[in-house]
Amino acid sequence: MSTVQKNAAILFADISGSTALYDKLGNQQALQLVATTLNILTHEMTAHQGVLIKTIGDEIMCAFPDAATAINAACAMHRAVEMQRPGGEQPVYIRIGLHYGEVIFEGSDVFGDTVNVAAHVTAITRARQILTTQALVETLPAPMRKHAHQVMRTEFRGKEEATDVYQVSWEREDTTSTRIGMRAFRKPTGARNELVLRYRQQVITLSETRKSIVLGRGDDCDLVIRDKLASRQHARIEDNFGKFLLTDHSVNGTFIRFSDNQVIHLSHQQIVLHGAGMVSLGLAFSEAPSEIIEFILQ
What we know:
By secondary structure, the chain is an alpha+beta fold. It contains seven helices and 19 strands.
């Protein structure tokens, strides 16, 4: 696998308040809304020379060759979502965080400190905002820099020095709501952000210290499910930039029942786990499975 190091702008575009959408609309409708919104974001990314690195549940991560292209794409994403109204009467907002610097391209993925900083910036961004760093702003053409304003100086974990964070105006006429952002759709600060899984007498917690587990029938799995319908390595759950993503790799599929009793059947697909619920490997809940994995996000 070839490895290339070069400078790039890394952009995360996240659907704000997606957990509230699932609670309000139900899983099926919310999943469709998320998919429609991500398609809008991906279309704008492609139109601005971006490369999709990965989709993380309700968020895309992409790379751009330079800062100006990335900022133009970010503005276009906000405008497209606002114009196309993918939720109809249900408001849908996005938030975008960016950083520019050296990254490691390995196959179809990217790694490095630039990716981590971009993710941290996104985590403090509110709905309808674009936040970025001084490192990115300094590489913009002069006419574009006037649309960027420093809004805070903050410390990120693992960084010795504080980082200057800038907001980029994307509306034709900047408004107070854009400058301030929408507090209701900001990620809560101080949240533990842990996923607790319980299967029989076993309890496993995913967090900063343990990022992923594999579920399945094989003895090498983290949670071994002794059921003939479970594949040897049936599914994987991982903490991906603060979202707990369940990905099905099985023959018979994975069934998730959330606390509102809505059931999602995954077949080589993925979903962000939210709230609380149960997981069944290979057997629908209508068949009364005996091997159940419980989960709760806290």
